[in-house]
Amino acid sequence: MADLHLDRPLPLPPGLDDDKQDWLRKAPLRALEKAVTAAVKKQVDFVLISGDIYHKADRSVHAFWAFRNQMVRLSDAAIPVYMIHGNHDPVSAGTNYFKLPANVHVFPPEGEAVWHWTKTGGGWIYGFSYPEPAYTETPYHHYIKQHGGDFHIALLHGQAGSDTSHAPYAPFQPSELRQLQMDYWALGHIHQRQLLMEDPPIVYPGSLTGLTRKETGEKGVYEVRMPSSGRPDLYFLPCADVLQHTVVTSIQHLYHMDEWIQSVKRALPETEAHILLTVQVKGSGRLHQLFRQQREETAAVLESELHSFSCTLMRLDVQTASSTRDTNSPVVQDILDLSGREETRKELDQRLEGLHMHGSIRRHAAFPDEQTKEELLKQAADELLLTLEEEVE
Fold first, then answer.
1. What predicted TM-score, i.e. pTM, was given to this entire model?
2. Of 49, 178, 213, 308, which has the highest C-beta tally within 10 A?
């Protein structure tokens, strides 16, 4: 397992009662408990944790206490734990408020190889912990293969060099890891489940729970079975009872809200987990004006319609366009042409730069990228077209 982020605050919409907020925010702790329960039930040889147990360098007392308690459960079941620290919880930061039980081995920043005895033999486990949050060195020198052993397993918290979705901490190339001749790579840092290579398996199990709306799908851990010969077998075990899910809908050819609400319901996944739902609304059509002018009321109606589902509406993301865009009116074409002119873009840049000169704005908001600027111009054009529609009516 990897990327537990036990003390990461879960952003929640306003209006939830205290009990529901508390239950949702404890989702990472319940996922860890479920993973440990599975390990105990299956009597695994050992558990691997590939970094970012905590989200903050200054660990939360409650998160550390909860983690320690689960490690004690594994100790009681005589299951060793091998773990590393990542960029969010480097060994140089934070305080160990509680002593971890003796079954937990934390790899040091200088790295090491540890021998582990099994019932049928033994093998080497390799790893290193981040000494500081921004560790950008290549990690290969920490993984010098030792002699002997039935298996060689490596823990690494880092990022493949071709992936630009996260900060390039401990950057590596899968082809370079393969040359180190390990039997299995237990990775951390990327929150989406990924198999980078099959032989040997180079695996991101993903985060234990989905803590942002981008971290969709089932979350959990891998059970890895090491045969006496051949490649390891991987079995994914879902652990999260709260899932992030995004539904993309269109108002194209829709005439009534009932039709749109039904399209949302049909797109919900079949799962026993509670869904944290983001709904995107796209397209152009008759309902555009309603979504633009009464977004909050529309969201409230949708929430009421979803009461029979185990679901919390996190966000209603309206990206609709006026159907007026599709007409050949000279006024409409003038508005669309104006939003696409280079002079308009330059004026937007000047105004944004002026706003960004203010210290309070600069501290709390990054300067918009080109995609954001395009969206601002599109929204401005849509507002003008919406005003035009209202005037015509």
1. 0.80
2. 49
